[in-house]
Amino acid sequence: VSSSFSSALPKTLINGESCDSLAVSDRGLAYGHGVFETIRLCQGRLVLWEQHMQRLQQGCERLGIDMPKHLGSELMKEVLRLCGQDAEGVIKIIITAGSGGRGYASPPVIDSQRIVTLFPLPEYPADRAEGVDIITCNYRLPLNPKLAGMKHLNRLDQVLARAEWQDTAIAEGIVCDTDGMVVEGTMSNLFAVKNGVLLTPDLEQAGVKGIMRDFILQSADAIGLESREVSLTIDEFKQADELFLTNSVIGLWPIKQWDEQRFYKGLTTGVFQARIEQLLNEGS
Amino acid sequence: VSSSFSSALPKTLINGESCDSLAVSDRGLAYGHGVFETIRLCQGRLVLWEQHMQRLQQGCERLGIDMPKHLGSELMKEVLRLCGQDAEGVIKIIITAGSGGRGYASPPVIDSQRIVTLFPLPEYPADRAEGVDIITCNYRLPLNPKLAGMKHLNRLDQVLARAEWQDTAIAEGIVCDTDGMVVEGTMSNLFAVKNGVLLTPDLEQAGVKGIMRDFILQSADAIGLESREVSLTIDEFKQADELFLTNSVIGLWPIKQWDEQRFYKGLTTGVFQARIEQLLNEGS
User: pLDDT class for A4, splitting at 50, 70, 90?
Assistant: First the structure.
């Protein structure tokens, strides 16, 4: 926990009130009927805020949760209240379908709940920007187009995949789907550069479409680098020239070792790292 | 809500304390990292209590949640406190992995949380014991042997399947897996009788192994009726001589209409209904 973190402020707001517990009847707990976002607070700015709000809205729509149009500005106010003078941290926003009865059927009127929590920025080793060691998980992600791409609250797949290693020298584990195709890391998206083309797994059947993943794909477009969403095996990914991981909190970590194989941080990876630095420092 | 329900008593205990809200940092909410049971309270007895406790224990083991050996007797005491003089109702027990940080990795020591809630018995139309109308859902369950069979808190599949109909005349929807094989109802298990053999979907890849499903399979054994766990399509199931649904709260509902097709309550279905009546009335 960062020592600069001002502990006097409330750390969680539920529907705008300082509170840190939720009704046990909430469908978020009962069924995982909800979505969440993890947003980087950097130099007092909320990085890619609009994109996070858009994904939250889309997730709510897919799960039949009413998210009022003005909720984005409401959430922004609440986040600013929570942050106070803090300039660095991680904001987690959960929207649940609210309290229901005991059955799976949603009540006729959904009274969605919003939970906003401020966490200190996790203290990862500084050298992760130079490269990380990763492994391949044995756990396989099921194919489910109706839930694919979404950051919903049903995350047992990630919990079980992440439980495969305890060694803190391992930064991430890569997970395949039940067909053996690479999907993502347990908490990050995977990118490869091969013969001058940017590759990342297609997420139509499984996985979470990260906001930082979108930013990388758009950046590739902006710099004229061809990108493709692909369905490839672990062995095929390991033939790449460069490999890296992204998420909204870590930014970008180059991969320097994947299972037994060594990789080197390449030029294209450096270009994306610089773009993320720019995003974090200048907000563009 | 049943009018005989004594509203003065607490309705929820968390870790034995009267309380109806849970920390938002709980992994049950964040990831659905937990399991639950729904137990019938009938004539003051907790039906198939030991079996429910056993499934709870097995689910916790599969999800890396520490469930102390004495927890069964602890839960029993808490349930009896909640029930007071109430003789009829539904007990829901949730065990979560407890509070963790922001990541998928479980903390080194899991401080599991237990939530016990008493609900009134749902008031289904009385004629459902004579037969119900059901539909086939479009939603497909993903194949995931690591989670199959378990009553865990990741239930978006059931929420989305159940959202396909609002007509209260439809009692249940049958859901297939992504391979097109029948798995279960959204809240019940499916049985068929065909040529004197009891059939029910194999649940090694998807679905919840209901406690009442186990009771039916054991009852079949006890009365010398052959049973098989099978992988069949909707059309194949519809060729059965008898069809019925089970769960711990409803007991058994014969199927009288499935999509466009009419069915009739058969003799074998009646035998199982009688056994469940006996279980509820005499506890054997």
Answer: very low
**Among A53, A52, A50, A116, CA closest to A79:** A116
B154 touches chain A (CB under 8 A): yes
Alpha-carbon separation of residue B76 from B119, B195, B234 (angstroms)? 16, 42, 40
In B137-151, which positions are buried (b, 16+ CB within 10 angstroms) versus exposed (e)?
A: bebbbbbbeebbbbb
- By the 8 A CB rule, do A200 and A190 touch? yes
Give the torsion through C-alpha atoms of A149, A284, B104, A199, to 10 deg: 50
A212: closest CA of chain B, how far (Å): 17
The separation between CA B267 and the C-alpha centre of its own chain, rounded to angstroms, equals 25
Least Cα separation, residue B201 to chain A (angstroms) = 19
Residue position matching structure tokens 């990789």 = A263
Q: B146 catalytic, yes or no?
A: no
Rounded to 5°, angle at Cα A36 from A30 and A38: 140
A227 min Cα distance to partner chain B (Å): 29
CB atoms within 10 A of CB B191: 27
Tell me, yes or no, if B92 is annotated catalytic. no
Task: Please indicate if any CB of chain B lies within 8 Å of the CB of A205.
Answer: no
A171 → chain B, closest CA residue: B105
In angstroms, the first-to-last Cα distance of chain B is 28
Of B21, B102, B156, the CB nearest to A24: B21
What is the C-alpha to C-alpha distance for residues B144 and A157, in angstroms, rounded to an integer?
9
User: How far is the C-alpha of B261 from the C-alpha of B251, rounded, in Å?
Assistant: 23
This prediction has a pTM of 0.95
Residues A174 and A258 sit within 8 Å (Cβ to Cβ): yes
Percentage, residues of chain B above pLDDT 90: 87
Per-residue pLDDT averaged across B112-137, rounded? 95
